[in-house]
Amino acid sequence: MYPQLLAKRESDSLIYCGKATNPRVLFHFHSPIELYLVEDGEIDVWINDSHRTLKAGEMSVAFSYNAHRYYTKNNATSIYLIIPYDKCVEFNALIRDKCTDDPFITDRDTFDKIKACCDVIMNNCNTLLTTGCVYAILGILLDSMCFKPCTESVQPQKMTQI
After folding, report:
1. pLDDT for residue 18
2. Which of 50, 52, 64, 124 has the most Cβ atoms closer than 10 angstroms to its Cβ?
3. Which residues face 62 on adjacent strands?
């Protein structure tokens, strides 16, 4: 199965954060960073060549142009956060030419910090506070994930133009 580009997300500069029940999302990719935090149940997640069944208190991180898919077999609830490319330019510059072998976070403390930020984003209309929470999440990801030099270079601006 080949992933599909979600072109409509490429020009969207809105931050999306909400709750999902029993997500079943086809293999796709886009420039925004996408996080899925499992609150209850289990969700099968594929990101590029990695697969994991996430349980409550675990999460996945699909960086720009990572192919990803979500599938729930049983009841599950999750929080999703979609951060548009223009809101994470500095972060993407820091991880340019780097990749991670493990796009999954199983550390409960990291999960709780990111979930607290997502709760603020979902329950607030203040754009400065929302942007601050997004930057806090990106900083937490930078500190908690291991990045290494990557042999394949993805250039989001060129991908968006194509």
Report:
1. 96
2. 64
3. 34
